[in-house]
């Protein structure tokens, strides 16, 4: 879907990296290693996104760190678009549908850090949760969004680096 609109795979990876979680930041070499691409390809896309105002850069020691520009007028739209692209809206809807008294849903692991590994890790916190529903839900969600989903019911020990998708 989004691949037909944004034809540069590198640009799409960068948008996922920075717009899934506003706290994600990285530098050129780190991104090149993470994506398995040349520094020139990454630099070109970083420059385009920075010139357009979607990313901001700041010097830290001898490195230039990039992160999403949350003040950009289109930040919220891109943030929501990336969440829809990854299927997080449908995932959240399915969890809240019949899981019970859910108090918090947190995206953890690679996707919370903006890495498209193919496995979405989700922690669910709440009371009287329907654990049997999770097994069925996992298969349903995988078919719905085309990505493997790993659910974990938490007892209050939510990953502080995770991305909160829902709070009651």
UniProtKB/TrEMBL annotation:
Q: Which InterPro entries match?
A: WH-like_DNA-bd_sf, WH_DNA-bd_sf
User: Mind telling me what this protein is named?
Assistant: Uncharacterized protein
Which organism is this protein's natural source?
Answer: Mongoliibacter ruber
């Amino acid at each position: 879907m989004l691949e037909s609109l944004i034809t540069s795979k590198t640009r799409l990876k960068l948008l996922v990296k920075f717009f899934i979680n506003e706290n994600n930041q990285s530098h050129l070499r780190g991104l090149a290693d993470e994506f398995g691409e040349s520094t020139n390809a990454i630099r070109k896309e970083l420059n385009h996104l920075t010139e357009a105002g979607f990313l901001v850069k700041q010097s830290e020691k001898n490195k230039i760190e990039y992160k999403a520009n949350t003040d950009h007028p289109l930040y919220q739209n891109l943030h929501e678009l990336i969440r829809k692209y990854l299927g997080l809206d449908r995932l959240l809807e399915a969890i809240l549908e019949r899981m019970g008294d859910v108090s918090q849903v947190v995206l953890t692991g690679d996707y919370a850090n903006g890495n498209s590994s193919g496995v979405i890790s989700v922690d669910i916190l709440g009371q009287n949760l329907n654990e049997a529903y999770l097994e069925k839900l996992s298969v349903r969600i995988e078919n719905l969004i085309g990505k493997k989903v790993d659910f974990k019911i938490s007892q209050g020990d939510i990953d502080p680096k995770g991305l909160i998708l829902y709070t009651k």
